Amino acid sequence: MTIGPVFDSQEELADSFHTSLEQFKRHFNKEESCVEALYTAKWPNGYRCPRCSFSQCYTIRRRRLPIYECGSCGHQTSLTVNTIFEKSRTPLTLWFQAVYLHTQIPAISAINLMHLIGTTYKTAWLISHKIRHAMTQSDSGKRLSGLVKINCAQYGRPYNPTIYRHPQEHPLLVGASLSLEGSLTHLKIKQVPNEHLVEDRVTPLGRDAFIYDHVDSRKSMVTSNILKFSPMRDRQLLSVAKHASLWINSTYCGIGAKHLQAYLDHYCYLRNHNSPFSVHLSRCASASVCTYKMLIGKPDTGVVPRPITLIYPQLLNKTPYLVSC
Ligand SMILES: [Zn+2]
User: Fold this and answer.
1) Which domain range does residue 149 map to?
2) 51: CA distance to ligand 1 center in Å?
3) What three-state secondary structure class fits 9?
4) Are strands 144-156 and 215-225 parallel, antiparallel or unpaired?
5) Is residue 186 part of a domain?
6) Ligand 1 centroid to 92 CA: how many Å?
7) pLDDT for residue 17
8) Cis ω on the peptide bond leading into residue 106 (within 30° of 0)?
């Protein structure tokens, strides 16, 4: 699957969505049809009480969205509880349009979403990040495996020949599973935390942390190159990282370090999943709650440092992956 083309302007991007968006809006034009689809997404095998797992309930329709009361323990829940939709006052019809637009190639900026669904910029921005939160959670459960290649790359300043890190330079690690024919089958692009950098260079410990976090090393043959200017770097991975940067810059006009990882995860999600809308909706309905406070409270690096003890055990166990620099 390819993610291109990168659009020349936001107007061109919005136009490309117009026809298919209108068809989508006609299909999900009422809250009732959205409730029905979300019910199937949340409970694909029928209602299940979150407290006692009982399978029968009473439906109470006094509010905007139905309340489901367990026929056994009386516990009340709704379709949006414990999902990215929780406590949102935005109608489901608009939420559905936002999910649809974010899962189309090449996606949409918050300002274009604001105009298309008629919300404030803050609401559009929050909805966008909640959808990306669901995408990140969905992809975090799948590790790279098989033939795996890892390369260093960067977002931001395109070329910095010095050994010092430029403030606009954000070192990345790009990892991909490859088919026997050499095409990418699953992609991950991750920011490298400061603790795994010496100026703009990724340390071997940073590479090992990436493998620990994102590769099923029991089922993988891993090759890596983390040397910034090495001629042995993988051209395919470098090209993907460059395209991710172009996509972020053309769609979102550039992103700072704090939220960069969410956009990188969004790019990888679009490359990794060519799924129907119902599957994307199921992922949104199974992702955990994400609030505005959580998003703005993230550390500026966009990377949550992990305890060093999480990294060392695997290194000491001499797992069977092969690493080269
Ligand atoms: Zn119950």
Assistant:
1) 144-258
2) 5
3) coil
4) parallel
5) yes
6) 26
7) 55
8) yes
